Amino acid sequence: MENMRAIISKDNKKALSNNSTHGSNDSLCNCRSKGTCPLDNKCLTSSLIYNAQVTSSTNNITTTKNYIGLTKGTFKQRYTQHKTTFKHRKYSSSTELSKHVRHLKDNTINFNIKSSIIARASPYNNSSKRCDLCLTEKLMIIKHSNCNLLNKRSKLISKCRHENKFYLRNN
Ligand SMILES: [Zn+2]
Ligand SMILES: [Zn+2]
User: Could you tell me the distance, in angstroms and rounded to a whole number, from the CA of residue 110 to the centre of ligand 2?
Assistant: First the structure.
């Protein structure tokens, strides 16, 4: 786990220095109470790859699982969707993260989720014809594959969802 933390904090420094060119931290968070921000007062950052670290403990044994995801919109929008899938059983199989959270809830295991930015990348655009956001997510999943990832290997062959939006308005 130390390795994972070292990698994440290194990537975070990069992400932080990217952010600093886009204004102060205040404009990157609109949470009413800064202590409750789901992304360390940077929840309005968009086009990013994040790691959600779920720490749970049972019988004094602490377990840490990591989930890597991406969002084209702001992290806050994405996290709101995640929260819905944690709350309602009918959405609990939406992601590997929501499946894990449902398992913890069903077993009344206390847990804590801490998210961080591990990379930033541009989504699909018509001139480049490629989606760095999806590519980078896959790279991050490979890079962190020994870090108790919840992600399934099948995510590595999933198709870009951002390309479609140029044809359909369903995303
Ligand atoms: Zn915030
Ligand atoms: Zn994509």
Answer: 34
